[in-house]
Amino acid sequence: MEIGENLSEKGKKDLDIVNRAKQGDQSAYAELLSKYREPVYFMLLKMIKNTDDAEDLTIEAFGKAFNRINQYVPNYAFSTWLFKIASNNCIDYIRKKRVVITSMDHAYTNENGESVGMEIDGGHLDPEEVYIQQQKIKTMREVVERLKPRYKELIIKRYFEELTYDEIADDLDLPLGTVKAQLFRAREFLANLMSNTKDTI
């Protein structure tokens, strides 16, 4: 059986685009992003119930998929592979967010506006886990301090102050599109810095 022979016609067309991407064709990446950005976004929105977080996670999902594009093998459709990466990334995000919420003893508001507690397996974090979490946050802040001022400010406002894109745009008197584009770049720089310090966190 030829490679990709078991794919649907849509899957075979995607495989052609993926193969171009593997060869370094930047327009192929743009085609995949254009084709699947909305479906991935709406899937994540159903999982996360927050438009800003869903948008962040969509960008992260494509970043991870594109970085691993050479690992994709056409035993199944590219879209299946992409959606799996996106959903797994979202589940990891939800778990991490629950740990932070639990450790900070914050409440979560459900769809009905009711305040409810969120717990992770095993209940509250023990002192050692709290210490580890605090060290991770400390290390993250130290890494953020190494960013260029404009990127550092965006990361702090988005992830430490938890402002929405609109609030950041108003606060900095910038167009919304500029905020989103610069945050995308800021996350790339942050990810590169974090990868160089991953052994310490």
Element layout with pairings:
Blueprint: H1 9-22, H2 26-48, H3 51-67, H4 78-103, E1 108-109, E2 115-116, H5 127-144, H6 149-160, H7 165-172, H8 176-196
Antiparallel strand pairs: 1-2
Helix pairs in contact: 1-2, 2-3, 2-4, 3-4, 6-8, 7-8
Give me the Rg, rounded: 19 Å
How big a fraction of the residues is strand? under 5%
Mean pLDDT across every amino acid position = 76
Helix share of residues?
55-70%
Task: List the helices and strands in order.
Answer: HHHHEEHHHH
**Number of E-state strands:** 2
Task: Give the helix tally.
Answer: 8
- Note the gap between the termini: 46 Å
Largest sheet: 2 strands, antiparallel
Looking at the structure, what is the overall shape? globular
Write out the strand line-up for the largest beta sheet, numbering strands in chain order.
1-2
